[in-house]
Design goal:
It is globular, with a radius of gyration of 30 Å. The chain is an alpha/beta fold. The protein has five domains: 146 residues, Restriction Endonuclease; 136 residues, Rossmann fold (3-Layer(aba) Sandwich); 67 residues; 196 residues, no CATH class; 79 residues, no CATH class. It has 37 helices and 19 strands. The strands form six sheets. Strands 1-2-5-6-7 form a five-stranded mixed beta sheet, with helices on both faces. The two termini are 35 Å apart. The N terminus is likely disordered.
Length: 803
């Protein structure tokens, strides 16, 4: 476990990749850590070297012990004075400095030397290990060790910053659970060639997040889930750190398992981009089920694709999804969790808001230490920071903003002022956006009007709509371009592969949400901004449903009634736009696959229908129908399976608004009756849209039709008409749905027919795309579990204002 030569770093090699040969000893910028973070890092390092019997670091007022170890250290450094092992009990002591390239002297340790005799006399110290991030000269090391020997220490050992750095570089499993070190060192010295390129790209796109990251219990659980099961779903409110955890997992998996990172948008993209011949892939999908609201089509895509995703995982891929918790609650019933053990919440679902007060303090400390607040401002804040860490809700993104002057120009540096800043971000953002100059407002408007991921392409080439945005804000193209650079790092960030296309994006989703709540107050900007939105941005960021304003919480750009017609005209144009390209291509296997272009066309069309169903009030729907009166008739030819179809949602919404004729409604009921028998499809039984569309008489007629027409066909296998089944075929689910429905109606004879049919169907030969193997049954990976360390009575913010 100890490297006799710190220049020699051994890594498991593969035949596919070469180790990057970087000269020099591996170094990490440990001086940029606070005293507490360095102490925690030392704890992680020593647990890896010594094993789990290393005691967590204790209170700093314990008479000279930052931690303890009662085992035996095999293969210690030769300079310890022995060549076989060191015996406990060990006393562990840390000494951190915030000055780069500083050297530790004997005189700086007088306070610690005074405590050593008492520890020896109480039998607590046979070996004394001093760890520091500073350099230690040979002369100083010998003086320190001699002082310790005179105090009764049998085996004194001084481990300087070089030893800490070399140990980090030598242990991949350590870096998995202490991933912030990727942002502190020269990646070329610790990673192989491909992992180095991956990690460099990830850090370049999110350097601040890496530099300020804190190991929390949610991160540990997420890392363990990825390590054990290959899958994790990160849940939480906005601004609580879901994407940052996903980013750090991407860095760690590039190092630990040689994974290539793929930032996908949908489940279909995961399936399409999975390469069976490149099993070590890391798929990261942010906002898997919708960005600010649940998007049915995304969840249905995951439900359909889950067998293939699970196959990819069983072959070595790792998948991380993020979602806001309230969106996941809407998506969860559609995911068929019962069918896939890996989706069971206690294994792979992590709520990232579950932070201890100590973890919150470290997060707040890191952002303040990394930010651009002057030392005198941080000193003025310091008495109130412990209280700020207890804010409810606590959002790490707000801790980031507290460390930046751009967000705190009007902040009251009092306990109440800082607490208000932490808990009410949208109110502060409105004031901040109002204070920006015209160039900065124009730059943010350009980014907001860009595509769904908020990325404004670089280099900047302005079209007519974008020039109009710049003009209406009182800016110029040159001024807006300069402002894009000026706002990078605070409001914006530069992105590129593998996180997205090259360009500018809002640094955090809540920043563009705040911008969306500010824009409606700017009448001169709202009209032109709407006109400048891309189709995808219009369909995902705009809301014409003021009746549900409280539910939206200002997350979408709310359109006032005078602009309804302009929005409706654009929606109608998008919905009626024909597709002229190729719809499907034949693969090598002989099967047909929808082309990417046609898939995007269908996705855009489903977004239009989702807008009409979920984000339109009655007045807007009337305006839309005046432009597109044939819409209801064009929605009647929906297909199975209706729980995943977009059309019924719009039809139900029109019916609730009194805008669906009875003639059309009856034809919709007939269509559902046909699908209920021929597919079979049970989506009408419990679907919320069908509770609106179907009367009690309609339901009775459908049940009778199922009983008299479908049941007789089941015994002969005509009820599903298949000789084999797909793993993701929902027929079995439909049969179960009918079984349960007839049981609830006390028609147990009919329910038994469906139960028998379901059993017969489940015995049909499956048609899986790949063999499925659960990772839990494979040989386990080497685990390193780094337990959290308790905080001390010394305030973590003690040195936050030190330069």
């Amino acid at each position: 476990m100890w490297l006799d030569d710190p220049m020699l770093i051994r890594f498991p090699m593969t035949t596919r990749r070469a180790r990057v040969a970087a000269p020099g000893e591996p170094t990490f910028e440990l001086h940029t850590l606070g005293w507490r973070a360095f102490q925690d890092l030392c704890a992680g390092v020593l647990r890896t070297v010594w094993g789990q019997s290393a005691q967590a670091f204790a209170d700093s007022n314990d008479a000279g012990r930052d931690g303890a170890f009662y085992g035996v250290w095999h293969d210690p450094p030769d300079k310890a004075g022995v060549h076989d092992y060191l015996r406990g009990p060990f006393v562990l002591q840390c000494k951190h400095t915030k000055k780069a390239d500083s050297t530790l002297s004997e005189s700086e340790l007088e306070e610690e030397f005074d405590k050593v005799p008492g520890l020896v006399n109480r039998g607590l110290c046979r070996s004394y290990v001093l760890m520091t991030n500073a350099r230690v000269t040979g002369s100083s090391e010998e003086k320190i060790r001699e002082r310790l020997r005179k105090s009764g220490v049998e085996y004194p050992l001084v481990l300087a910053g070089g030893w800490v750095c070399a140990t980090i570089a030598a242990h991949r499993e350590l870096r998995l659970f202490v991933p912030r070190v990727y942002g502190l060192g020269d990646l070329s010295q610790i990673l192989d060639e491909r992992a180095y390129a991956q990690a460099s790209a990830l850090i370049a796109a999110a350097r601040d997040q890496v530099a300020t990251f804190v190991i929390t219990e949610p991160y540990r659980r997420a890392a363990e889930a990825v390590q054990d099961h290959g899958f994790v779903l990160l849940l939480g409110e906005p601004a609580v750190g879901k994407s940052v955890i996903a980013l750090m997992l991407a860095l760690a998996t590039a190092d630990n398992w040689d994974c290539l990172t793929v930032k996908a948008r949908t489940a279909s993209e995961v399936v399409d981009r999975w390469n069976p011949h490149e099993p070590s892939q890391f798929f990261w999908v942010d906002d898997a089920f919708g960005a600010v609201r649940h998007q049915d089509q995304l969840t249905h895509d995951w439900a359909r694709s889950m067998p293939h995703v699970m196959t990819a995982i069983s072959k070595g891929a790792r998948v991380v999804l993020t979602s806001r918790d309230y969106i996941y609650q809407d998506a969860r019933p559609l995911l068929k969790e019962y069918a896939y053990p890996r989706l069971r919440e206690h294994k792979v679902l992590v709520n990232v808001e579950d932070l201890t007060v100590d973890e919150r303090k470290q997060i707040l400390y890191n952002h303040l230490a990394r930010g651009d607040q002057p030392a005198d401002v941080k000193a003025e804040m310091k008495p109130f920071l412990d209280h700020a860490a207890t804010a409810e809700p606590f959002r790490p993104e707000m801790a980031h903003r507290l460390g930046l002057r751009a967000f705190t120009s009007g902040l009251s540096l009092t306990e109440a002022g800082i607490a208000e800043f932490m808990t009410h971000p949208r109110e502060f953002l409105k004031d901040i956006y109002e204070q920006l100059d015209a160039d900065q407002q124009a730059a943010l408007a350009l980014v907001y009007a860009a595509a769904v991921d908020g990325s404004l392409e670089s280099p900047l080439t302005l079209d007519e709509a974008q020039r109009d945005i710049i003009s209406r804000t009182g800016s110029t193209p040159a001024g807006a371009t300069r402002a894009l650079d000026a706002l990078t790092g605070s409001f914006l960030q530069i992105t590129g592969p593998p996180l997205g296309r090259p360009g500018w994006t809002f640094r955090h989703p809540t920043l563009w949400e705040g911008f969306a709540s500010w824009v409606p107050t700017q009448s001169h900007l709202l009209t032109v901004l709407l006109a400048g939105l891309t189709d995808t941005a219009l369909l995902t960021r705009v809301d014409c449903d003021d009746e549900n304003a409280d539910q939206q919480q200002g997350m979408l750009l709310r359109v006032p009634p005078p602009l309804y017609r302009a929005v409706a005209q654009r929606l109608a144009t998008i919905h009626r736009r024909p597709f002229a390209g190729r719809r499907a291509i034949r693969q090598e296997t002989g099967e047909w696959r929808v082309t990417d272009a046609y898939a995007e066309h269908l996705r855009t069309r489903s977004l239009v229908l989702a807008f009409l169903a979920r984000r339109s009030n009655d007045a807007f729907l009337r305006t839309y129908l005046a432009i597109d009166p044939d819409l209801p008739a064009n929605l009647m030819n929906f297909g199975s399976y209706v729980s995943t179809a977009s059309e019924p949602g719009v039809l139900a919404r029109l019916h609730r608004a009194g805008l669906l004729s009875e003639q059309i409604r009856l034809r919709v009921v007939d269509r559902m009756a046909h699908l209920a028998i021929t597919t079979p499809d049970d989506g009408w039984i419990s679907g919320s849209d069908w509770k609106i569309l179907l009367t009690s008489d309609d339901r009775a007629r459908l049940f009778e039709k199922v009983r008299t027409e479908l049941v007789p066909r089941l015994a002969t296998n005509e009820g599903w008409g298949a000789s084999e089944r797909d793993e993701d075929d929902p027929v079995e689910s439909a049969l179960f749905g009918y079984e349960r429905a007839f049981e609830n109606a006390d028609d147990f004879d009919t329910a038994e027919v469906f139960a028998q049919a379901r059993e017969m169907y489940s015995q049909l030969p499956a048609r899986p795309s790949e063999d499925y193997t659960d990772l839990d049954d494979q040989s386990p990976l080497t685990h390193t579990r780094l337990a959290p360390t308790p905080m001390t009575s010394r305030s973590i913010f003690d040195d936050v204002d030190k330069e």
